[in-house]
Amino acid sequence: MIGNDWDTVLKSVWESPNFNKFMDKVKEEYKKYTCYPEFNNIFNALKLTPYSKVKVVIIGQDPYHGEGEAHGLSFSVQKGVKLPPSLQNIFKELNDDLGIKNGSCGDLTPWAKEGVLLLNSILSVRKDSPLSHKDLGWQLLTDHIIKLINLKKEPVVFILWGSFAKSKKQFITNKNHLVLESTHPSPFSAYSGFFGSKPFSKTNEFLKKNKIKEVNFTLPSH
Q1: Which DSSP symbol is given to 82?
Q2: Which of 37, 53, 69, 201 could pair covalently with 41 via S-S, beta carbons 3.0-4.6 A apart?
Q3: For 120, how many CA atoms within 13 A lie in the half-sphere containing its CB?
Q4: pTM above 0.70, yes or no
């Protein structure tokens, strides 16, 4: 399904009758309603960041629900789409933290290719209806993915922004890993602990200390 080592790691899931029934439900939603991201992009996060390459996980809640925004990566929007407020604040903190000034392109694909798994907990949404797929069953899969990453011997940084992401901390029990928590980067909470939390420098300091290549958070300017 994915085309990399996730297919082996998740083999028992892909082959289970329950998962196939679940995917039939998802397909039905996509037939009946306009849903995002495009069906072929639902598993983009896994496609772009193989299990063996995951060194950072940034957990989001569900995809953007506006037309043409979501493409299967948490917090990321497609090229040419105006930056959502949360992503603007992420870029502001990145600039304050590491001096990296990313421009108007909010496509975080280069981060995913650097080993940053941009994982939404709910992988689909109906147009203009946030959290419309929260009861579909996606969390059974994405919680399982977090647990599988927790099993990795190699140290991983988990970045949990906001109370929803922090609720996943219960699955991160491996002492090899680093958990970074703060409020959500949305305009409603960014000033209550997100700004100044320095997640990017802390991530790279931890990776460097563990002799893992640091993440280049600079995005192409186009």
Answers
A1: P
A2: 37
A3: 29
A4: yes
Placement of tokens 């090899």 in the chain? 176
Render pLDDT for 188-213 as a digit per residue (tens, 0 to 9): 999 999 999 999 999 999 999 999 99
> CA-CA distance, 139 to 144, in Å (whole number)?
8
**24 catalytic residue (yes or no):** no
Nearest to 23 by CA among 109, 136, 116, 146: 136
pLDDT digits (tens, 9 = 90+) for 113-145: 999 999 999 999 999 999 999 999 999 999 999
The size of the chain, in residues, is: 222
Choice among 5, 7, 24, 62 that is catalytic: 62
Determine contact, residues 25/40, Cβ cutoff 8 Å.
no
Average pLDDT, the chain: 97
For the cut 70, the answer to whether the pLDDT of residue 53 exceeds it is yes
| Distance, CA of 84 to CA of 105 (rounded, Å) | 11
Residue 99 in 3-state DSSP? coil
Q: What would the two tokens of residue 146 be? A: 């977090």
Cα(77)–Cα(184) distance, integer angstroms: 17
